[in-house]
Amino acid sequence: MADTTADAPACDVDGTCYCPLTGVISTLSQKYAIQLVSIIGAHDSLRFAEIEAHLPTASTSTISKRLDEFEEAGLVSRTQYNEIPPRVEYALTKDGDELRARLEPLLEWAASTE
Amino acid sequence: MADTTADAPACDVDGTCYCPLTGVISTLSQKYAIQLVSIIGAHDSLRFAEIEAHLPTASTSTISKRLDEFEEAGLVSRTQYNEIPPRVEYALTKDGDELRARLEPLLEWAASTE
DNA sequence: CAGGATCCTTATAGATACTG
DNA sequence: CAGTATCTATAAGGATCCTG
Predict the structure, then answer these.
(1) How far apart are CA B23 and CA B5, in angstroms?
(2) For B102, which of A39, A98, A109 is closest by C-beta distance?
């Protein structure tokens, strides 16, 4: 762990820059985002109401927003069945599962520190 | 990946509940929090101004707040030297480094997806 | 059932100015 | 240098109502 070379750009010694809040990290910095990935990943697929039941402290609109963001980020797939009553299934995509895998150690450790 | 047993509490199949936003996860859900852990962890110790230089898009007050929260959570240590001009060094604690280790795969992967 | 639209409240961050 | 205090702007989340 060397120190900064003083003339380097305002980023990291190894050239990696975490400065801007971009991509997945900014998506994860939303309320309940981490938990949602974990919850969806714990199942093959889930319906909206099921997700709500797993995260009772989050409001409908918050969950809805997170799911939209995840879908746009390609982390979650949304499958709509045109039945009556309507049915929608959410599941992690391959990318979403990559994320989940990297989140798991974090969540386990976090749970153990409480 | 089994599905819910329907009668289970509004948590996870395996009994794990991620519902409330608590502890480390809520600390991490703050702006720049993840990056800060990573930046501090990339050095043995850092002064306030150095941290600012590594995260130029974050304001002084935001960084200050994050550092306070980290210190309170026992993730970062703050060492003050009573010199003139004053000098303060921030470093990850053992716990903070545990966290950093679990964050690293996430950050690497996140960077690769951009 | 799934969730969008709206309105409202709170949380959070940023700018600025100032101090030990 | 290393912040804190204050204020303001904005974003984010929650409650409620409503619809395909």
Answers:
(1) 28
(2) A109
